[in-house]
Amino acid sequence: MKIVDTDVLLDHFHGNQAAAEFVTSHIKRGEVLTISAISVTEITGGMREGEQGRTAWLLYQFEVLDVDEAIARQAGRFLRTYRNK
Asked: Whole-model pTM?
């Protein structure tokens, strides 16, 4: 099981090849990809008119995890590691 960060989802949604290959390769291998409920909020909150169908399809590919302390801490590590500096 892998937890996928919102930024990876956005990159995948917007056609970033590396993000798309990451998601697709894990799904094809039958691995469970998860996102937090916070990612669902961030993705749907930033959705533009006409993106509802594509967004729903993308989110359907992932198991959604409730946010707990471990996920919140992992999200913090992702932010520190990957935020724009």
From this structure: 0.72
